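Q: I'm writing up a methods section and want to include an example of the input and output format. Could you take the sequence below and give the corresponding predicted structure tokens, formatted cleanly so I can copy it straight into the document?
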Amino acid sequence: MQKILYYLILLPFSLLPLSIIYVFTDTVFLVFCTIFPYRKKVIIENLSKSFPNLSKKEIRLIQRKFYRHFCDLLAEGIKNLSISKNELLKRIKVENPLIMDQLFKQNKSVILVAGHYNNWEFLISAQHLLFKHAAFGIGKKMTNAFMDNKINERRMRYGMHVIHKGNFKEEIEKTLPTPIAILTLTDQSPSDTHKSYWMEFLNQQTPVLFGAEQMAHSYDFAVVYFETKKLKRGHYSIELKIITDQPKSLEWGEITEAHTKSLEATIIKQPEFWLWSHKRWKRTLPEDMNHLKEQQHDKFNERYKR
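A: Here is the clean output for your methods example:
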């Protein structure tokens, strides 16, 4: 069934101009707004807890704007399967590429951090075209192996290397000392809350993936936050901000706090562009948070601060 979906529907559909694909996803938007409100309960709950001072009317307005953007993402995600190199580079630009250029000249590898905000798929495909660093992206495997393989094949056709937690150390160390840039989206819900970094994010205690900070300290990689801005439908720009180029000088949690607060500020400016339909806050708060933080702090210092 997945092969039929991919070869007979998704891939041929992706060959259409994006403007035509939008016509189909505009219909999906109308369905979401009238007949089948996709994950409405999750979206409303997430928005209400994140913005407790907003009225129900304001929350519903963000929900509607989110549906509009989400349907654009569906169209752009399909188009990304076959988009040409030239068209891709017309649709995503970097505002301040000098930051990455300078780090490359210093032979400094980079961890690019952000969340599921605006269009991340265009950046995954275009990263190797936009920056001089060898492009890597840490992905979470999809449930269906066939779709996982095919989508990652399309993501990698312009030079990106998709890796995962099972092989990322081997792949990274195989490439070093060539400067690399590792793309990671840190707003996923961690599976192990006791290995996560807990902090306040959008007015809620939230477990944050700690892997970016660990990689930075293990390999002395710079950490750069990127904010994706929607210029108009199907067109985006990337603004870069250095979190640190000297990670070993920082203490436990400083990198994670910095990039997560940066993402929070991005979301607050235009909340409709974040992925509100995922269950970001489904994990249970650990009972003894203070003890957990002390343990994490001590383990971090033992590993990185000897």
